[in-house]
Write a structure and sequence with these properties.
Distance between the termini: 54 Å
CATH superfamily: Glutaredoxin
Largest sheet: 8 strands, mixed
CATH architecture: 3-Layer(aba) Sandwich
Oligomer: single chain
Shape: globular
Strand order of the largest sheet: 1-10-9-4-5-6-2-3
Order of helices and strands: HEEEEHEHEHEEEEH
Number of helices: 5
Radius of gyration: 17 Å
Helix content: 25-40%
């Protein structure tokens, strides 16, 4: 078995384990019928500190007061990242058209901080939506953030030209205005499914935490 295949198998194994664990907590909890809702025991995001694409500090307190759609990826990603960001772009634009985007923020956290400088993140996200927030920093800062969410990433082998791919979690994490992980969207992603679940969860939280 070559190194690339071993990496993929490891990622799938870890992702499956995470999915089984969270899936057991989501969608079938007493009193709820919302797919993917981690309730009544949502996961509070533990302290972390990274930088946004403008160089400002971004911590767990930056999640307060906003519904956050968080996706981990990298600017050299050939397919999954641009496809997922395009779907999230559609979601955000539809929310904006409905006047419901003011309390929503889209976060793109790099899993390749060695290549993804803050300037590169800024230029990359501007292509999708200038309101999107890029998260970077040191390798240690990013690892701390991924651990808080249970996200997975693994750098592949470097080719002769010095390039490499990074295998990573393709899920989108939904965090509520209290900084709690309430749902994890698994691929394949569609704007309709993402919008529907977001609306249902927002309504549920509004009705049950007045």
């Amino acid at each position: 078995m070559n190194t690339k295949l071993i990496i993929i198998v490891c990622l799938l194994t870890l992702a499956t384990g995470l999915g089984v664990y969270l899936g057991g907590r989501a969608g079938n909890q007493p009193g709820t019928r919302i797919e993917g809702l981690l309730w009544p025991d949502p996961i509070t995001i533990e302290p972390f500190a990274v930088l946004d694409q403008h160089g400002a500090s971004f911590t767990e307190s930056s999640l307060q007061g906003k519904w956050s759609l968080l996706f981990f990826g990298y600017t050299h990603c050939p397919d999954i990242c641009p496809l997922t960001l395009s779907v999230i772009k559609q979601v955000y634009e539809q929310l904006a058209q409905a006047g419901m985007a003011e309390d929503v923020q889209v976060l793109f956290a790099t899993v390749d901080p060695e290549r993804d400088t803050l300037g590169k993140l800024s230029g990359y996200l501007a292509y999708f939506n200038p309101d999107f927030i890029g998260l970077g920093g040191t390798v240690e800062q990013i690892q701390n953030l991924t651990q808080r969410l249970g996200a997975i990433s693994m750098r592949g082998e470097t080719d002769k030209a010095g390039g490499y791919l990074v295998d990573h979690t393709a899920a989108v994490f939904l965090i509520d205005p209290k900084g709690r992980l309430l749902s994890i969207y698994s691929p394949p992603h569609t704007s309709a499914a993402m919008l529907s679940r977001l609306a249902n969860i927002r309504s549920f939280i509004s009705e049950n935490e007045r």
